[in-house]
Amino acid sequence: MNGVTVSTDENGLPERIDLSSRALRLGGDQLATEILRQCHQAATISGARARQELAALGIDRRTLDAVGLPTLADIAEAEAVAGPAAMLDRPTMLDRIGIAR
Q1: Contact, 72 vs 47, CB < 8 A?
Q2: E-strand spans in the chain?
Q3: Within a domain: residue 22?
Q4: Does residue 75 fall inside a structural domain?
Q5: Is 99 among the domain residues?
Q6: Residues whose CB is less than 8 angstroms from the CB of residue 101 and which lie 6 or more positions away in sequence, other chains included
Q7: CA angle, residues 23, 86, 6, in degrees to nearest 5
Q8: pLDDT per position as a tens digit, 39-74
Q9: In terms of residue numbers, what domain contains 27?
Q10: CB proximity list for 9: less than 8 A, separation 6 or greater
């Protein structure tokens, strides 16, 4: 753990960034890289969850591929690089607009 925690919205945009004293000792480039990595990971997870929800509503895989929503394989790839994702139970865009699973 490098002491950087980023909370994002469902699009992966940062809403809150918490930095420990350890994180403050990182160089600017390393800190920026970690913040962007966490934002990207959150967006990938949220997109994959939205993909699952849309598939459950009957949207076919070809359409979901065309839209560009990430897959569970994309999450697995991100976790292989960054470790387990703790954001899987975050609400997605569909949760926020009231589309039930």
Answers
A1: no
A2: 4-8, 14-19
A3: yes
A4: yes
A5: no
A6: 53, 56, 94
A7: 35
A8: 988 888 899 999 999 999 999 999 999 988 998 888
A9: 4-84
A10: 15
